[in-house]
Amino acid sequence: MLGEGIIKGLAETARNFVGSYVDEDRLTTVQYPEERLPAQEAARNFPFLLFDGNDPHAGLRCVACQICERECPPQCIYIEKSKDKKPDYVGKPQFYPAVFDIDISVCMSCQICVEVCPFEAIKMDTEFELSNTDRFGGLLLDKHQLAKSNEYYHKIHPTEAAGVDSRLAADKAKVEAKARADAEAKARAAAAKATALPTLKAAPAPEA
Amino acid sequence: MNGDVATDTAGTVSGASLIPSPEGAGRPNYTLKPRTSEAGEIEGELLEVAMGPQHPSTHGVFRMDVALDGERVVKLKPVFGYLHRNHEKIAENTSYLGSMPYTDRLDYFCSLTNNWAYALAVEKLAGLQAPERAEYIRVITAELTRLVNHTCLIGFLLQDMGASGTPLMYAFREREKVLDLFESLTGARMMCNYMRFGGCRCDLPAGWLEQARRVVDQYPRFLDEFERLLSENEILVARTQGVGVLPGELAVNASITGPMLRAAGINYDIRKVDNYGIYDRFQFRVPLGEQGDTYDRYMIRLLEMRESIKILDQALRDIPPGPVMDPKAKIRGFRPKPGEAYGRIEAPKGELGFYLISDGGPNPYRYRVRPPSLINLTILEDLCLGHIVADVVVILGSVDIVLGEVDR
Hints:
The complex is a heterodimer of chains A (about 210) and B (about 400). Chain A is α+β, with helices and mostly antiparallel strands and about 210 residues long. Helix content of chain A is about 40%, strand content about 15%.
């Protein structure tokens, strides 16, 4: 019969329409600004800079090595290295970025900067409501706008952040253990020297 | 502002001298002559219509210069290039890894298969081997991509036919479920940037496989629904059967690949021919068409989706634990040895290949994409001749193009 296929199809449409009142699978619309879908943990949007502790300057992990600047495919990162140094999380003096800008109107959210960063200093944000009335200056984020705390990172990517923290803690423990072993070895050497050469007045005090 | 844009008979703008263009440059290579009846009376002229680049149903910025005799198409010239973004040259100037996010933007419906084809080419070049688990993840994501692509294609095809809304919305509803899976795995819905040379960027998050299994288990129900909605619909049948017939011989000669070729009855699927990745482990069939018309091209996609679900069932069942990256692979300072490689896969639209030449540097010396959309589009004129304008839109819809890939 001509028209049978159409009627069959319309029956399907009717089933979907009626079903949308009872079946959640068939009604997937979310009334966005009022209702929101839960954020996915892996979601990514634009990069931000991580800092430890409370001070965005003192705790900033970035050491201005400029690897991300070189690797960024659309080249949206601009870094200027500082003249002086500040201690990083293991206490080693490191450079820090005097200027760190990301033009998020150019950024394509590929997260290659995150992958190449050896210092776990740059991570992906999930913030997506970034509309701005200034299309040039408003979308060029500087160091102060980019710096976000480790607590915030834990809030948006809990699993990933825990992994990063344990890795950094392990690194720090290794560095501290090495420092301690070095100090001990030095002390032992100094003591041995002192016993081997008793004529000397005093061995130099081992560095702590 | 009198005479500002007035032209004189020689074709130059008054007040400015223009470089005379060569005769006929920029125009189709045919002449429009008045048609005469047998009695010698002039019946009318052929009408030249530029369909696009802003035509709502041309799937993006793509122009077809059509010459019409009444409503019949007598000549059609596809004009590409409006979305050219210099992908290949950019890739020759960025690191190997740096081109990976750009491949997402070729065929933006199928970013994961694009990633795979590029990763495969670089792996051949650098002698890397993805571990078992990564291969399974690649198959799973690629087949999910195929589901998304084919579902949406059918939605768009029906939209082009004038079924405004319903099939496309149903398709997008299902697509959203798969995109949620992609987001929880890769972090992005469409621009996934997930595969790496020698594996995948990260392992599956906890619970992802169960979630994927749920989506895959529900998919056949949706396909049944879609088929009941569309396949027997008299309007769809009338609009597609016998329209845009592609003979198998022409398809082979024009190096058409993918569902277009198989709808013409040629048994050629790179998953079977090349057995790239681990496709030799899965039981699946390659559906073939008989007529090569638009209806066959519609149907072949539905059948392929059912085969994809079979592959997904097997892959989700068999996926082993283990690492997802080759230990030899490195992110920074990646420099493959000098040489060349061609990696190709069966993307949802056809054979997607990446040809790379390395000179040992951090970026490829030559980078070339073989995009299925572009090559499938080259025979558009042969499909459209003799059909009416409304059919041109339907035929274009059934070719399944994405302009990001055609123009690159």
